[in-house]
Design brief:
By secondary structure, this protein is of the alpha/beta class. The protein folds into 2 domains: 35 residues; 180 residues, Aminopeptidase. It contains 7 helices and 6 strands.
């Protein structure tokens, strides 16, 4: 009888231990999932296109490209930092970085190179002679496999966030993507020459959706080891 009592008691203690262990593991998992995702050694330079006396494209309502790009770049930086990614801005005010367009672009790349970042994302708004053309576009340097992979992830995430646009990124030749040593892309958020796009690009809530799309694309790229 005494042996039976010991066996029952031992079995109950064992079950209690298992329950407490599961509770403890569940609590640890919940805390771990609540932490920001840390992406080891990932750093990003965010380049808000244009600035100062160079407004970039201008919409019919008077919306400046330079204003939209800076607002979105700041949001992308905020979201990346929250995800545990180091993120810096090439400009954080309405200013041009040098006297000519070429020198200005080279200065932006120079900031990214000096900081030795892993990725360079240059943010712009588009313009075209046909006002019917709209949607986001992402450009990479022709011949750059890493640039193409980064552009593909960002373009797909942008379309998912915005709900429209063409899936494939574009290969092209731009100074920023050509001279940078790290994978670099140019993200065109939409067309200021399209009335619908211009209305959206003036909306701060839409800015956050765009910013989240860019961040999702960057993190998807970072999490894809085979790209």
């Amino acid at each position: 009888m005494q042996c039976l009592v010991w066996h029952v008691g031992n079995k109950w203690a064992h079950q209690r231990f298992n329950v407490l262990l599961m509770i403890g593991l569940t609590a640890v998992l919940a805390v771990w999932l609540s932490w920001p995702v840390v992406w080891p050694a990932l750093s990003v330079a965010l380049d808000a296109g244009h600035g100062g006396k160079d407004p970039g494209a201008i919409g019919q309502s008077g919306l400046y490209e330079k204003t939209v790009t800076l607002q979105v770049a700041r949001l992308v930086q905020e979201l990346l930092i929250a995800a545990g990614v180091e993120a810096l801005l090439t400009r954080d005010s309405d200013a041009r970085l040098d006297t000519t367009q070429r020198r200005d672009l080279l200065a932006r790349v120079g900031i990214a190179e000096e900081a030795q970042v892993d990725l360079l994302i240059s943010i712009h708004c588009n313009a075209f002679r046909l006002s019917s053309v709209r949607g986001p576009s992402t450009f990479y340097q022709a011949g750059s496999a890493q640039g193409k992979a980064l552009a593909t992830h960002i373009q797909q995430a942008l379309i998912a966030a915005m709900g429209y646009g063409r899936q494939e990124p574009h290969a092209d030749d731009h100074l920023i993507t050509r001279v940078s040593s790290m994978p670099a892309v140019i993200v065109e958020l939409g067309y200021l020459t399209n009335p619908a796009d211009e209305r959206l690009l003036a909306d701060e809530n839409f800015h956050r959706r765009i910013a989240q799309g860019i961040v999702d694309g960057i993190l998807n790229y970072a999490a894809a080891p085979n790209d």
